[in-house]
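Q: Could you predict the 3D structure of Membrane dipeptidase?
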Amino acid sequence: MRRFAFLLLLCGLCAAQSPTPKQPAKAAPVGWKAIHDSALVVDTHADTPQPWLDKNINAADPDSKLMVTIPAAKAGNLGAEFFSIWVDPVKFKGHYPDRTLALIDAVYQQVQRNPKDMMFATSVKDIYAARREHKLASLMGIEGGHSIANDLGLLRDYYRLGVRYMTLTWSNTNDWADSSGDVDDKNIQHHDGLTDFGRDVVREMNRIGMIVDISHTSDRTFYKTLVVARAPVIASHSSSRALTNVPRNMTDDMLRALNRNGGVAMVNFNCGFISNEYAAAEKKLEAEDHSIADLKKKAAEPGSNITEADIQKAEDAFYASIPRPPLSNLIDHIDHMVKIAGIDHVGLGSDFDGVSCTPEGIDSAADLPKITQALHDRGYNAEQIKKILGGNILHVFSEVEKTAAQLQAESPENKDTRHEVKLDAQPKK
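A: Sure. Here are the predicted C-alpha coordinates for Membrane dipeptidase:
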Protein backbone atom coordinates (compact mmCIF):
# COMPACT_ATOMS: atom_id res chain seq x y z
CA MET A 1 0.00 0.00 0.00
CA ARG A 2 2.85 2.34 0.89
CA ARG A 3 4.57 1.36 -2.35
CA PHE A 4 1.40 2.25 -4.33
CA ALA A 5 1.07 5.62 -2.54
CA PHE A 6 4.73 6.36 -3.27
CA LEU A 7 4.22 5.67 -6.97
CA LEU A 8 1.20 7.97 -7.08
CA LEU A 9 3.21 10.75 -5.42
CA LEU A 10 6.08 10.21 -7.85
CA CYS A 11 3.78 10.38 -10.86
CA GLY A 12 2.22 13.55 -9.50
CA LEU A 13 5.62 15.18 -9.15
CA CYS A 14 6.57 14.13 -12.69
CA ALA A 15 3.36 15.55 -14.06
CA ALA A 16 3.89 18.81 -12.18
CA GLN A 17 7.40 19.14 -13.59
CA SER A 18 6.41 18.23 -17.17
CA PRO A 19 5.72 21.18 -19.46
CA THR A 20 2.08 21.80 -20.34
CA PRO A 21 1.42 20.57 -23.87
CA LYS A 22 1.29 23.54 -26.25
CA GLN A 23 -1.65 24.15 -28.54
CA PRO A 24 -0.81 23.67 -32.22
CA ALA A 25 0.47 26.93 -33.63
CA LYS A 26 -1.79 28.59 -36.17
CA ALA A 27 -0.46 28.45 -39.72
CA ALA A 28 1.06 31.72 -40.82
CA PRO A 29 -0.96 33.45 -43.55
CA VAL A 30 0.30 32.68 -47.03
CA GLY A 31 1.82 35.73 -48.74
CA TRP A 32 0.72 36.88 -52.17
CA LYS A 33 4.02 35.90 -53.81
CA ALA A 34 3.77 32.33 -52.58
CA ILE A 35 0.20 32.19 -53.88
CA HIS A 36 1.22 33.45 -57.30
CA ASP A 37 4.29 31.22 -57.57
CA SER A 38 2.23 28.12 -56.76
CA ALA A 39 -0.68 28.99 -59.09
CA LEU A 40 -1.19 27.70 -62.60
CA VAL A 41 -1.71 31.03 -64.36
CA VAL A 42 -3.73 30.91 -67.58
CA ASP A 43 -4.28 33.88 -69.90
CA THR A 44 -6.94 33.31 -72.54
CA HIS A 45 -6.06 35.95 -75.11
CA ALA A 46 -2.84 37.34 -76.60
CA ASP A 47 -2.44 38.60 -80.19
CA THR A 48 1.26 37.71 -80.33
CA PRO A 49 1.09 35.44 -83.43
CA GLN A 50 0.65 38.42 -85.76
CA PRO A 51 4.04 40.03 -85.04
CA TRP A 52 5.59 36.56 -84.88
CA LEU A 53 4.45 35.99 -88.45
CA ASP A 54 4.73 39.46 -89.95
CA LYS A 55 8.06 40.43 -88.36
CA ASN A 56 9.62 37.01 -87.82
CA ILE A 57 10.08 37.65 -84.09
CA ASN A 58 11.33 34.89 -81.84
CA ALA A 59 9.33 34.39 -78.64
CA ALA A 60 12.62 34.01 -76.79
CA ASP A 61 13.79 37.51 -77.73
CA PRO A 62 13.62 39.71 -74.61
CA ASP A 63 14.11 42.86 -76.70
CA SER A 64 11.19 42.32 -79.08
CA LYS A 65 8.97 44.75 -77.13
CA LEU A 66 6.17 42.21 -77.23
CA MET A 67 4.08 41.73 -74.11
CA VAL A 68 4.23 37.93 -74.24
CA THR A 69 7.76 36.59 -74.54
CA ILE A 70 9.36 33.56 -72.96
CA PRO A 71 11.37 35.69 -70.48
CA ALA A 72 8.24 37.68 -69.54
CA ALA A 73 6.19 34.50 -69.13
CA LYS A 74 8.81 33.05 -66.80
CA ALA A 75 9.05 36.24 -64.77
CA GLY A 76 5.26 36.37 -64.39
CA ASN A 77 4.79 32.63 -63.81
CA LEU A 78 2.51 32.44 -66.83
CA GLY A 79 1.73 28.75 -67.24
CA ALA A 80 -0.56 28.71 -70.26
CA GLU A 81 -1.39 31.18 -73.02
CA PHE A 82 -4.15 31.01 -75.61
CA PHE A 83 -2.59 32.70 -78.64
CA SER A 84 -5.15 34.52 -80.77
CA ILE A 85 -5.54 33.60 -84.41
CA TRP A 86 -7.04 36.85 -85.73
CA VAL A 87 -7.58 37.60 -89.42
CA ASP A 88 -8.29 41.17 -90.50
CA PRO A 89 -11.72 40.81 -92.17
CA VAL A 90 -11.07 43.65 -94.61
CA LYS A 91 -7.44 43.19 -95.55
CA PHE A 92 -7.74 39.42 -96.04
CA LYS A 93 -11.25 39.26 -97.47
CA GLY A 94 -11.51 36.24 -99.72
CA HIS A 95 -8.40 34.71 -98.14
CA TYR A 96 -9.48 34.08 -94.55
CA PRO A 97 -8.41 30.40 -94.42
CA ASP A 98 -4.99 31.19 -95.91
CA ARG A 99 -4.22 33.82 -93.27
CA THR A 100 -5.69 31.65 -90.51
CA LEU A 101 -3.44 28.75 -91.45
CA ALA A 102 -0.40 31.02 -91.66
CA LEU A 103 -0.99 32.25 -88.11
CA ILE A 104 -1.56 28.71 -86.83
CA ASP A 105 1.73 27.73 -88.44
CA ALA A 106 3.43 30.69 -86.72
CA VAL A 107 2.46 29.24 -83.33
CA TYR A 108 3.80 25.82 -84.32
CA GLN A 109 7.03 27.43 -85.49
CA GLN A 110 7.55 29.20 -82.18
CA VAL A 111 7.11 25.97 -80.23
CA GLN A 112 9.56 24.20 -82.54
CA ARG A 113 12.09 27.02 -82.18
CA ASN A 114 11.83 26.97 -78.39
CA PRO A 115 11.27 23.34 -77.32
CA LYS A 116 12.93 23.84 -73.93
CA ASP A 117 10.52 26.62 -72.96
CA MET A 118 7.28 26.06 -74.90
CA MET A 119 4.97 23.08 -75.31
CA PHE A 120 2.09 22.85 -77.78
CA ALA A 121 -1.09 22.10 -75.84
CA THR A 122 -4.59 21.08 -76.90
CA SER A 123 -6.10 19.80 -73.65
CA VAL A 124 -6.25 20.36 -69.92
CA LYS A 125 -3.99 17.33 -69.56
CA ASP A 126 -1.41 18.99 -71.82
CA ILE A 127 -1.49 22.18 -69.76
CA TYR A 128 -0.66 20.26 -66.59
CA ALA A 129 2.05 18.33 -68.43
CA ALA A 130 3.66 21.59 -69.55
CA ARG A 131 3.46 22.84 -65.98
CA ARG A 132 5.37 19.81 -64.72
CA GLU A 133 8.10 20.44 -67.28
CA HIS A 134 8.24 24.18 -66.49
CA LYS A 135 7.23 25.11 -70.03
CA LEU A 136 4.69 27.59 -71.37
CA ALA A 137 1.63 25.66 -72.53
CA SER A 138 0.87 27.18 -75.93
CA LEU A 139 -2.73 26.96 -77.07
CA MET A 140 -4.71 28.68 -79.83
CA GLY A 141 -8.07 30.40 -80.12
CA ILE A 142 -9.55 31.80 -83.32
CA GLU A 143 -10.80 35.37 -82.99
CA GLY A 144 -13.66 35.81 -85.43
CA GLY A 145 -15.96 33.20 -86.96
CA HIS A 146 -15.31 34.56 -90.44
CA SER A 147 -12.14 32.42 -90.38
CA ILE A 148 -14.16 29.28 -91.05
CA ALA A 149 -15.48 30.77 -94.32
CA ASN A 150 -18.95 29.33 -93.63
CA ASP A 151 -17.61 25.77 -93.70
CA LEU A 152 -18.05 23.32 -90.83
CA GLY A 153 -15.45 21.08 -92.41
CA LEU A 154 -12.92 23.89 -92.07
CA LEU A 155 -13.98 24.38 -88.45
CA ARG A 156 -13.12 20.74 -87.81
CA ASP A 157 -9.82 21.12 -89.65
CA TYR A 158 -8.86 23.98 -87.34
CA TYR A 159 -9.74 21.81 -84.36
CA ARG A 160 -7.54 19.02 -85.71
CA LEU A 161 -4.70 21.55 -85.99
CA GLY A 162 -5.10 22.44 -82.32
CA VAL A 163 -7.50 25.38 -82.14
CA ARG A 164 -9.45 25.10 -78.89
CA TYR A 165 -11.77 28.09 -78.87
CA MET A 166 -13.36 30.44 -81.38
CA THR A 167 -15.11 33.75 -80.88
CA LEU A 168 -18.28 33.57 -82.94
CA THR A 169 -17.53 37.06 -84.27
CA TRP A 170 -14.86 39.69 -84.14
CA SER A 171 -15.86 43.37 -84.45
CA ASN A 172 -17.54 42.50 -87.75
CA THR A 173 -20.88 40.79 -88.16
CA ASN A 174 -20.32 37.74 -90.37
CA ASP A 175 -22.77 35.72 -92.45
CA TRP A 176 -24.21 33.89 -89.46
CA ALA A 177 -23.62 35.84 -86.20
CA ASP A 178 -23.96 39.47 -85.10
CA SER A 179 -21.12 41.47 -83.59
CA SER A 180 -21.16 44.16 -80.92
CA GLY A 181 -18.81 46.16 -83.14
CA ASP A 182 -21.41 47.08 -85.77
CA VAL A 183 -24.68 46.24 -84.04
CA ASP A 184 -25.99 49.78 -84.64
CA ASP A 185 -24.83 49.99 -88.24
CA LYS A 186 -27.96 49.98 -90.41
CA ASN A 187 -25.85 49.23 -93.48
CA ILE A 188 -24.97 45.82 -92.08
CA GLN A 189 -27.26 42.82 -92.56
CA HIS A 190 -27.91 41.45 -89.07
CA HIS A 191 -29.38 38.09 -88.09
CA ASP A 192 -31.26 38.61 -84.82
CA GLY A 193 -28.20 37.13 -83.13
CA LEU A 194 -27.64 33.82 -84.92
CA THR A 195 -28.80 32.21 -88.15
CA ASP A 196 -29.66 28.53 -88.37
CA PHE A 197 -26.14 27.92 -89.63
CA GLY A 198 -24.81 29.89 -86.66
CA ARG A 199 -26.63 27.51 -84.35
CA ASP A 200 -25.06 24.61 -86.25
CA VAL A 201 -21.63 26.16 -85.64
CA VAL A 202 -22.26 26.28 -81.89
CA ARG A 203 -23.52 22.69 -81.86
CA GLU A 204 -20.56 21.44 -83.86
CA MET A 205 -18.12 23.28 -81.60
CA ASN A 206 -19.72 21.54 -78.62
CA ARG A 207 -19.53 18.18 -80.38
CA ILE A 208 -15.85 18.38 -81.31
CA GLY A 209 -14.73 20.00 -78.05
CA MET A 210 -13.97 23.55 -79.17
CA ILE A 211 -14.85 26.18 -76.56
CA VAL A 212 -17.52 28.66 -77.69
CA ASP A 213 -16.31 32.23 -77.09
CA ILE A 214 -18.84 35.08 -76.97
CA SER A 215 -16.41 38.01 -76.65
CA HIS A 216 -17.13 40.53 -79.45
CA THR A 217 -20.64 39.20 -80.09
CA SER A 218 -23.76 41.31 -79.80
CA ASP A 219 -25.92 40.87 -76.72
CA ARG A 220 -28.54 39.13 -78.83
CA THR A 221 -25.96 36.68 -80.15
CA PHE A 222 -24.81 35.98 -76.60
CA TYR A 223 -28.27 35.02 -75.38
CA LYS A 224 -29.12 33.01 -78.50
CA THR A 225 -25.84 31.11 -78.06
CA LEU A 226 -26.66 30.15 -74.48
CA VAL A 227 -29.97 28.66 -75.63
CA VAL A 228 -28.15 26.38 -78.09
CA ALA A 229 -24.96 25.56 -76.16
CA ARG A 230 -24.68 22.20 -74.40
CA ALA A 231 -21.33 23.10 -72.81
CA PRO A 232 -20.16 26.13 -70.82
CA VAL A 233 -19.07 29.13 -72.89
CA ILE A 234 -16.43 31.76 -72.21
CA ALA A 235 -15.85 35.43 -72.84
CA SER A 236 -12.12 35.21 -73.55
CA HIS A 237 -11.43 38.95 -73.16
CA SER A 238 -14.33 41.08 -71.93
CA SER A 239 -14.81 43.27 -68.86
CA SER A 240 -17.79 44.78 -66.99
CA ARG A 241 -20.18 47.13 -68.79
CA ALA A 242 -21.62 48.31 -65.48
CA LEU A 243 -18.21 49.86 -64.69
CA THR A 244 -17.13 50.85 -68.22
CA ASN A 245 -20.01 51.39 -70.60
CA VAL A 246 -18.72 50.03 -73.91
CA PRO A 247 -20.48 47.40 -76.07
CA ARG A 248 -17.53 45.01 -75.86
CA ASN A 249 -18.08 44.56 -72.12
CA MET A 250 -20.65 42.33 -70.44
CA THR A 251 -23.74 43.57 -68.63
CA ASP A 252 -24.60 42.27 -65.17
CA ASP A 253 -27.48 40.27 -66.65
CA MET A 254 -25.07 38.64 -69.08
CA LEU A 255 -22.72 37.78 -66.21
CA ARG A 256 -25.59 36.18 -64.29
CA ALA A 257 -26.56 34.19 -67.38
CA LEU A 258 -22.96 33.06 -67.76
CA ASN A 259 -23.10 31.84 -64.16
CA ARG A 260 -26.16 29.71 -64.95
CA ASN A 261 -24.39 28.35 -68.03
CA GLY A 262 -21.35 27.41 -65.95
CA GLY A 263 -19.04 29.55 -68.07
CA VAL A 264 -16.37 32.09 -67.24
CA ALA A 265 -15.68 35.72 -68.19
CA MET A 266 -12.05 36.68 -68.61
CA VAL A 267 -11.27 40.30 -67.73
CA ASN A 268 -9.75 42.34 -70.57
CA PHE A 269 -6.82 44.62 -69.64
CA ASN A 270 -7.52 47.17 -72.40
CA CYS A 271 -7.60 50.69 -70.89
CA GLY A 272 -10.69 51.58 -72.89
CA PHE A 273 -12.57 48.62 -71.40
CA ILE A 274 -11.67 49.27 -67.75
CA SER A 275 -11.91 53.08 -67.54
CA ASN A 276 -14.80 55.33 -68.57
CA GLU A 277 -12.44 58.30 -68.49
CA TYR A 278 -9.98 56.64 -70.85
CA ALA A 279 -12.77 55.44 -73.15
CA ALA A 280 -14.20 58.98 -73.40
CA ALA A 281 -10.78 60.51 -74.09
CA GLU A 282 -10.09 57.82 -76.68
CA LYS A 283 -13.37 58.48 -78.46
CA LYS A 284 -12.71 62.23 -78.50
CA LEU A 285 -9.20 61.77 -79.92
CA GLU A 286 -10.43 59.43 -82.66
CA ALA A 287 -13.14 61.93 -83.63
CA GLU A 288 -10.60 64.73 -83.98
CA ASP A 289 -7.75 62.79 -85.56
CA HIS A 290 -8.39 60.24 -88.32
CA SER A 291 -4.78 59.23 -88.94
CA ILE A 292 -5.13 55.69 -87.57
CA ALA A 293 -8.34 55.06 -89.51
CA ASP A 294 -6.63 56.32 -92.66
CA LEU A 295 -3.62 54.07 -92.03
CA LYS A 296 -5.88 51.03 -91.67
CA LYS A 297 -7.61 51.87 -94.95
CA LYS A 298 -4.25 52.08 -96.72
CA ALA A 299 -3.24 48.77 -95.16
CA ALA A 300 -6.33 47.16 -96.68
CA GLU A 301 -5.51 48.35 -100.19
CA PRO A 302 -4.20 45.74 -102.66
CA GLY A 303 -0.41 45.54 -102.63
CA SER A 304 -0.07 47.50 -99.37
CA ASN A 305 3.13 46.89 -97.42
CA ILE A 306 1.63 48.15 -94.17
CA THR A 307 1.63 45.36 -91.57
CA GLU A 308 -0.31 44.82 -88.37
CA ALA A 309 2.91 45.61 -86.54
CA ASP A 310 3.09 48.97 -88.32
CA ILE A 311 -0.48 49.74 -87.29
CA GLN A 312 0.22 48.68 -83.71
CA LYS A 313 3.25 50.98 -83.53
CA ALA A 314 1.22 53.90 -84.88
CA GLU A 315 -1.59 53.23 -82.43
CA ASP A 316 0.84 53.11 -79.51
CA ALA A 317 2.08 56.59 -80.42
CA PHE A 318 -1.43 57.84 -81.16
CA TYR A 319 -2.88 56.92 -77.77
CA ALA A 320 0.21 57.76 -75.71
CA SER A 321 -1.19 61.22 -74.95
CA ILE A 322 -4.04 59.73 -72.90
CA PRO A 323 -3.08 58.97 -69.25
CA ARG A 324 -3.17 55.27 -68.42
CA PRO A 325 -5.71 54.24 -65.76
CA PRO A 326 -4.39 52.79 -62.49
CA LEU A 327 -4.19 49.06 -61.86
CA SER A 328 -6.98 49.49 -59.32
CA ASN A 329 -9.42 49.96 -62.22
CA LEU A 330 -8.65 46.46 -63.48
CA ILE A 331 -9.07 45.02 -59.99
CA ASP A 332 -12.38 46.90 -59.67
CA HIS A 333 -13.63 45.02 -62.72
CA ILE A 334 -12.55 41.69 -61.28
CA ASP A 335 -14.23 42.59 -57.98
CA HIS A 336 -17.49 43.53 -59.65
CA MET A 337 -17.58 40.52 -61.94
CA VAL A 338 -16.90 38.19 -59.01
CA LYS A 339 -19.71 39.86 -57.07
CA ILE A 340 -22.19 39.39 -59.93
CA ALA A 341 -21.11 36.13 -61.59
CA GLY A 342 -19.46 34.43 -58.63
CA ILE A 343 -15.90 33.51 -57.74
CA ASP A 344 -16.02 30.43 -60.01
CA HIS A 345 -16.80 32.44 -63.14
CA VAL A 346 -14.05 35.06 -63.57
CA GLY A 347 -10.55 34.84 -65.04
CA LEU A 348 -7.88 36.73 -66.98
CA GLY A 349 -7.96 37.52 -70.71
CA SER A 350 -5.28 40.19 -71.07
CA ASP A 351 -5.45 40.99 -74.80
CA PHE A 352 -1.66 41.38 -74.61
CA ASP A 353 -0.05 42.42 -77.91
CA GLY A 354 -3.48 43.35 -79.21
CA VAL A 355 -4.12 46.61 -77.37
CA SER A 356 -2.33 49.94 -77.28
CA CYS A 357 -2.87 50.61 -73.60
CA THR A 358 -2.90 48.53 -70.42
CA PRO A 359 -3.23 49.86 -66.86
CA GLU A 360 -0.27 51.37 -65.02
CA GLY A 361 2.26 48.77 -63.98
CA ILE A 362 1.00 46.09 -66.37
CA ASP A 363 3.38 46.28 -69.32
CA SER A 364 3.83 42.58 -70.09
CA ALA A 365 3.22 39.07 -68.80
CA ALA A 366 6.05 39.69 -66.34
CA ASP A 367 3.71 41.98 -64.39
CA LEU A 368 0.99 39.39 -63.73
CA PRO A 369 2.15 38.96 -60.09
CA LYS A 370 0.99 42.53 -59.42
CA ILE A 371 -2.58 41.40 -60.03
CA THR A 372 -2.20 38.65 -57.45
CA GLN A 373 -0.75 41.14 -54.97
CA ALA A 374 -3.64 43.54 -55.55
CA LEU A 375 -6.25 40.80 -55.14
CA HIS A 376 -4.53 39.63 -51.95
CA ASP A 377 -4.51 43.19 -50.61
CA ARG A 378 -8.28 43.33 -51.15
CA GLY A 379 -8.84 40.26 -49.04
CA TYR A 380 -9.01 37.43 -51.56
CA ASN A 381 -7.65 34.19 -50.14
CA ALA A 382 -5.32 31.75 -51.86
CA GLU A 383 -8.08 29.48 -53.16
CA GLN A 384 -10.05 32.38 -54.64
CA ILE A 385 -7.00 33.93 -56.27
CA LYS A 386 -5.95 30.65 -57.86
CA LYS A 387 -9.43 30.25 -59.35
CA ILE A 388 -9.19 33.68 -60.98
CA LEU A 389 -5.62 33.13 -62.15
CA GLY A 390 -6.43 29.93 -64.00
CA GLY A 391 -8.49 27.43 -62.07
CA ASN A 392 -11.83 28.60 -63.45
CA ILE A 393 -10.89 28.39 -67.11
CA LEU A 394 -9.30 24.98 -66.57
CA HIS A 395 -12.58 23.78 -65.05
CA VAL A 396 -14.59 25.07 -68.01
CA PHE A 397 -12.12 23.53 -70.46
CA SER A 398 -12.56 20.19 -68.68
CA GLU A 399 -16.35 20.48 -68.88
CA VAL A 400 -16.16 21.22 -72.60
CA GLU A 401 -13.99 18.12 -73.08
CA LYS A 402 -16.48 16.00 -71.10
CA THR A 403 -19.45 17.34 -73.06
CA ALA A 404 -17.71 16.56 -76.36
CA ALA A 405 -17.09 12.98 -75.25
CA GLN A 406 -20.76 12.60 -74.30
CA LEU A 407 -22.04 14.10 -77.57
CA GLN A 408 -19.72 11.94 -79.64
CA ALA A 409 -20.92 8.87 -77.74
CA GLU A 410 -24.52 9.85 -78.47
CA SER A 411 -23.81 10.37 -82.17
CA PRO A 412 -20.62 8.54 -83.16
CA GLU A 413 -21.18 8.99 -86.87
CA ASN A 414 -20.54 12.41 -88.34
CA LYS A 415 -21.46 13.28 -91.87
CA ASP A 416 -18.84 15.52 -93.47
CA THR A 417 -20.73 18.70 -94.33
CA ARG A 418 -17.80 20.29 -96.11
CA HIS A 419 -19.00 22.43 -99.01
CA GLU A 420 -22.59 21.36 -98.38
CA VAL A 421 -23.54 24.04 -95.86
CA LYS A 422 -26.07 26.55 -97.10
CA LEU A 423 -26.52 29.87 -95.34
CA ASP A 424 -29.96 31.29 -94.63
CA ALA A 425 -31.23 32.76 -97.88
CA GLN A 426 -32.85 35.65 -96.08
CA PRO A 427 -31.23 36.33 -92.70
CA LYS A 428 -33.60 37.62 -90.06
CA LYS A 429 -33.49 41.34 -89.40
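Q: Anything worth pointing out?
A: Confidence is low (pLDDT under 50) at residues 1-22, 416-429.
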